[in-house]
UniProtKB/TrEMBL annotation:
InterPro entries: AMP-bd_C, AMP-bd_C_sf, Mitochondrial_ACSM
Residue intervals of the AMP-binding enzyme C-terminal domain: 13-88
Descriptive protein name: AMP-binding enzyme C-terminal domain-containing protein
GO molecular function, one term: fatty-acyl-CoA synthase activity
Pfam families: AMP-binding_C
GO biological process, one term: acyl-CoA metabolic process
Organism, scientific name: Noviherbaspirillum humi
Protein family (similarity comment): Belongs to the ATP-dependent AMP-binding enzyme family.
Keyword list, A-Z: ATP-binding, Ligase, Nucleotide-binding
Amino acid sequence: MINASGFKVWPAEVEAMMYQHPAVQECCIIAARDAYRGETVKAVVAKRAGVEASAEDIIEWAHAKMAAYKTPRLVEFVEALPKSATGKVMWRVLQEREMAK
């Protein structure tokens, strides 16, 4: 759970919405530090081949689809998300890397 300005954001709910974007092949929602909000929503996205989209495009699209406090304010593009041997996204690896920044 991400606590953004006192609002509780469930990553699975935001991820389900993000998968509807045509450029999103894979997505993992994590918390990022924010001096004002405490935490903010960050999307780590692997883009679909052949589809172009900028971070701003994805943020604008998400803002139109969900509540403002749930909208990712940061988007990071990666080639692929880290996965376990069973194919599950290793979100803790992404979260720990973000908090180490």
